[in-house]
């Protein structure tokens, strides 16, 4: 069961957890939200997730994971979607599916849709499901993107999905504290039937500036 909270204070920092591999080795995954990425050298400080081996790492070096993100500003991401990953804060939240071959959820809540940038820049947020072997060919999630919705603040225009996250065997849970003028909501993807669930909009839309789902655990 996930607990969804409103913020009492804000702490910015790294996110990390352990992951065990079948060959007996152990790694720790570390989120570095302000890092540059060797896979996106043209993007300023998009953040990254690093894999660090434990016990068999005498040089204490870590390797950045390739999450197949776009390399250029304005890369298409939907009919009315063009991405801007500058300062997107990848790795601000990490969550692991609780099973032996569990996948990993990594998010960047400051990812922006700039399709309507002459009117509004929309910080939808972006998440990526990393396969259990930590290789490429994962799954991209932009849970707050809706075609032709372009106003900042209204509905999910500024939702910042992924500032917090939680993973069960079947569900991907992403906090979206900026929805409905920062009333906040939760975006939930059911991996079994590939459908999204959400909280009742009518219940939360009149609770502006409460930042629901800033933290999920």
TrEMBL record:
It comes from Echinops telfairi (Lesser hedgehog tenrec). This is Integrin alpha-9-like.
């Amino acid at each position: 069961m996930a607990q969804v909270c409103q913020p009492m204070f804000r702490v910015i920092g790294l996110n990390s957890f352990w992951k065990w591999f079948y060959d007996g080795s152990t790694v720790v995954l570390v989120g570095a939200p302000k890092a540059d990425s060797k896979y996106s050298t043209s993007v300023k400080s998009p953040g990254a997730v690093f894999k660090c081996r434990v016990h068999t790492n005498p040089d204490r070096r870590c390797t950045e994971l390739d999450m197949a993100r776009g390399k250029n500003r304005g890369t298409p991401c939907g009919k009315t979607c063009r991405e801007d990953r500058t300062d997107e804060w990848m790795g601000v939240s990490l969550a692991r599916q609780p099973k032996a071959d569990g996948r990993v959820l990594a998010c960047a809540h400051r990812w922006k849709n700039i399709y309507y940038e002459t009117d509004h820049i929309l910080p939808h947020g972006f998440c990526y499901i990393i396969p259990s072997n930590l290789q490429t060919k994962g799954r991209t999630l932009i849970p707050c993107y809706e075609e032709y919705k372009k106003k900042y603040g209204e509905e999910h225009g500024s939702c910042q999905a992924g500032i917090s996250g939680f993973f069960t065997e079947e569900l991907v849970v992403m906090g979206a504290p900026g929805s409905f003028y920062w009333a906040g909501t939760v975006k939930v993807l059911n991996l079994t039937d590939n459908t999204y669930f959400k909280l009742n909009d009518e219940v939360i839309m009149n609770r502006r500036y409460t930042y629901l789902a800033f933290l999920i655990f």
